[in-house]
Amino acid sequence: MPDPDEKPDQTPSDAPLNEGLELCANCGTALSKDEWCPILTDTDADGDLVIRSFCDEGCKEAWSDADSSGSRSA
Ligand SMILES: [Zn+2]
């Protein structure tokens, strides 16, 4: 029986609040899209290209160092 009052699967295709708002991949700081921030291209486990943004060069380097070690702790 369909219940018209409940739509548990209703998920917005894109969340307006998060659109354009990047988080630093290293420390999680919200990045202003009005300011330039360093980015790094990476590939995920499936080989898809991922672009990571960082709040500053220090975070970018910290991420690079951690990533190149091969052991990324979750
Ligand atoms: Zn950062």
Polypeptide structure, described:
The protein is built from one helix and four strands. The chain is an alpha+beta fold and 74 residues long. The chain has a domain at 23-67. The protein is elongated, with a radius of gyration of 17 Å. The model has no long low-confidence stretch (mean pLDDT 79). The site of zinc ion (ZN) has 7 residues, from loops.
Task: Provide the structure class.
Answer: alpha+beta
Helix share, percent: 10-25%
| Strand arrangement, major sheet | 1-2
What is the residue-mean pLDDT, rounded to a whole number? Answer: 79
In this structure, how is the largest beta sheet organized? 2 strands, antiparallel
Share of β-strand residues: 15-25%
Write the layout of secondary structure elements.
Elements lengths: L21 E2 L6 E2 L7 E5 L5 E5 L3 H12 L6
Antiparallel strand pairs: 1-2, 3-4
Bound molecules: zinc ion (ZN).
Zinc ion binds next to loops.
Name the descriptors:
two-stranded antiparallel sheet; binds zinc ion; elongated
In short:
The protein has one helix at residues 57-68, and strands spanning 22-23, 30-31, 39-43, 49-53. By secondary structure, it is an alpha+beta fold. It has a domain at 23-67.
